[in-house]
Amino acid sequence: MKRFEQLKELVDALEADFSKFYDKNNSAAGTRVRKGMQELKNLAQEIRIEVQDMKNQG
């Protein structure tokens, strides 16, 4: 469950940058959004592998 909490925290941390990018056309915020989304992707993949390993163990 710790990784799930990390996932939620990362999404919450990106909220301000999403707003700045979409509402105010702040391109620097867009860069931060892209970086954060890559982190989300990596974390999601780690969670998928962990779940699959646990499922296969038993």
> Which percent range fits the helix content?
over 70%
Mean pLDDT: 95
Summarize the helix and strand pattern as letters: HH
**Number of self-contained structural domains:** 1
Helix-and-strand structural type: mainly alpha
Beta-sheet strand percentage?
under 5%
Q: Rg, please?
A: 15 Å
Largest sheet, described in full? none
Tell how many strands the DSSP assignment holds. Answer: 0
Low-confidence stretches: none
Distance between the termini: 18 Å
Global shape = elongated
Contiguous helical run count: 2
What is the fold's blueprint, element by element?
Blueprint: H1 2-24, H2 27-57
Helix pairs in contact: 1-2
What would your notes on this structure say?
It is built from two helices and no strands. With about 60 residues, the protein is an all-alpha fold. The protein has one domain. The relative contact order is 0.15.
Top keywords for this entry?
58 residues, 93% helix, 0% strand, elongated
Give a summary of the structure in a few sentences.
The protein has 58 residues and is an all-alpha fold.
